[in-house]
Amino acid sequence: MSVKILTVDDSKTIRLIVAKAFKPFDCTVLEAANGVVGLAVASREKPDVILLDYTMPVMDGFEVLARLRSDPDLKTTPVIMLTAEAGRETVVKIAKLGVRDYLIKPFKEELLIERVSRVVTLATKSDDASRAKRFDDPISLVVVDDKPAIVAQIKTGLESTPWTVTSFDQPGQALDYCMEKGADVVMVSLSMPKDGAYMLFQNLKSYANTSTIPVFGMSVKTATAEHTKAQQTGFAGVISKPIDGDELKAKICRALHLETSYKYFKPGNGWMTLVLPKEFGPSIAHEVSSRLNDQLTATVDAGGDKLIIDLGEVPSPTLPIIELVHTAVETCGKLSLRHAVLGSSGFRQECRSYEESQSWVFATNLDEALSLLKQN
Amino acid sequence: MAIRKMYDTDIQQFEELTHQSIVDVFQSMVSMDLESESPEPFAADPDGQIIGSVGFTGEASGVICLYAGVNFAKSVTSRMLGIGIHEVDEDEMVNDAIGELSNMVAGSVKSRLCDRGWPCVLTIPSIVRGQRLSVERSADIIRKVIGFKVSDNETQHVMAELLLKQN
Predict the structure, then answer these.
(1) Distances (CA, A) of A138 to A244, A246, A263
(2) Digit-coded pLDDT (tens) for A313-356
(3) Which of A207, A258, A286, B38 could form a disulfide with A253 if both were Cys (CB 3.0 to 4.6 A apart)?
(4) Do B81 and A86 touch (CB under 8 A)?
């Protein structure tokens, strides 16, 4: 059975570090941003271990611990205290309150795992569970907005994907749905009345079966106060209205760590082809460049010795494209891979106006490219 | 709790504690080795500067400030959270990470001060962003500036400022 770990810390950074540390293990990490919420989550979810920050606003770690110890249902729950204050006096005070262990900040991730392993048995996730989802896998999105036009924009923006969008105009309906059927991503309008978006966020994060769902806020670009509040609350990000389909897909891919490299990197027999699509933009540039080194290293490992950069679909060589191809060619140089760039003769002329392209080997199709690289 | 008089040896000790705490925090949380360098004004980061500061008050009172360029702070955040730098797309993410690092540095200094007979308590961290920032001090404040560069990337710098209130 999956281990439940509750992290109670006012720092979003620490909560993210804890969640990251336990990602390889079969466990659910529940989050609470202060002591009051932490007690409520502990009471409902009965975690197997609680990682409790010492210094927090609203209710500090000592008070949370004292209340846990006075609750018959929670008094035996192991607590590991996290503290940036390692003075003798603090340590003695912590020990007297009956914590199972304590960890001084700064700490290394391995130490955190080691301390928790002393309290609960951590099993690594099975290969199937840890397999990264792909961009073309079915993804379930729950959208909460009382403006049908926004829901329509989202559906239009995602129509090229196999993802499903289920929309609600009230946060409570969305919570019930997520509790019952689950979801991969939740998007909620930050302008819902009565702080509905923040209530939904807190509720989703406090239930074991919904706590790991990334929640995005949606807001107009100029509502900076809303953006800041959402980020401080711990939303996975804020998506600007009107909805830009490319931005939305890129943010969801990042939040879910979707495997997208297969769209751009296509292995051949002894070579790798990098295909840049017609709708090349900054998010694709990030995706490709972040995976370039790994993909080319894997090509060399597998016995390949060539990279074919296919720009056939790209209408014209913009500066970001030139920069990306330049990086790819440089990486080829480091890995002793030969390269060729596919494009029409007109395209080649346009590229030649950039100094970076002077060393590129051009070809009009794959056969020509392979033949040229064979001669070289 | 009244502020106790500090002697030169105390001030030197506080400065050394701050130096060591910063090195430890960056090593543990960011997997980044820092080396001392003479503190010099930052080369202008086009995206500005960020300062994380935490105060301490008691028999020893003062403020510890960490200065970094915004782009370096993004890189630190990315390493702390184990995500790509392009995924650090929210200012608040960087603010929280730098605030947490400042808090850890101050917490570590505070613990050691308490153990050496200088009881004090910490304030919550605060973050300031802007261009060409500097912290002004009044006449009775002692200021110590500590400079660092990243061992494997000499273009990246962190600066710390230790401000101590003198009795």
Answers:
(1) 20, 18, 16
(2) 888 888 889 999 999 999 999 899 999 999 888 888 888 888 88
(3) A258
(4) no
- Give the confidence band of B134 by pLDDT, cuts at 50, 70, 90: confident
Nearest CA in chain A to B79: A17
R_g of chain A computed on alpha carbons: 25
Q: Is A163 exposed, middle or buried (0-12, 13-18, 19+ CB in 10 A)?
A: buried
- Kind and range of the H or E element at A177? helix A171-181
pLDDT digits (tens, 9 = 90+) for A205-224: 888 778 889 999 999 988 88
**φ/ψ (deg, to 5) at A88:** -55, -45
Q: CA A322, CA A309: separation in Å to the nearest integer?
A: 11
CA A108 to centroid of chain Cα atoms: 21
> What's this model's pTM, rounded to 2 decimal places?
0.67
Question: CB neighbours of A64 closer than 8 A, spacing ≥ 6?
Answer: A8, A35, A38, A39, A52, A56
- As given in the structure block, the two tokens for residue A91 are 């340590």
Architecture of the domain defined by A132-256: 3-Layer(aba) Sandwich (3.40)
Domain map of chain A by residue range? 3-127, 132-256, 261-375
Interface membership of A93 toward B (CB under 8 Å): no
- pLDDT bin (cut points 50, 70, 90) of residue A131 is low
Taking an 8 Å cut-off on Cβ atoms, the answer to whether B90 and A237 are in contact is yes
A12 contacts chain B (CB < 8 A): yes
For residue A270, give both structure tokens: 């002894």
**Are B25 and A254 a contacting pair at CB < 8 A?**
no
CATH code of the region A3-127: 3.40.50.2300
Tens of pLDDT, residue by residue over A24-35, are 898 989 999 899
CATH topology of domain A261-375: Transcription Regulator spoIIAA (3.30.750)
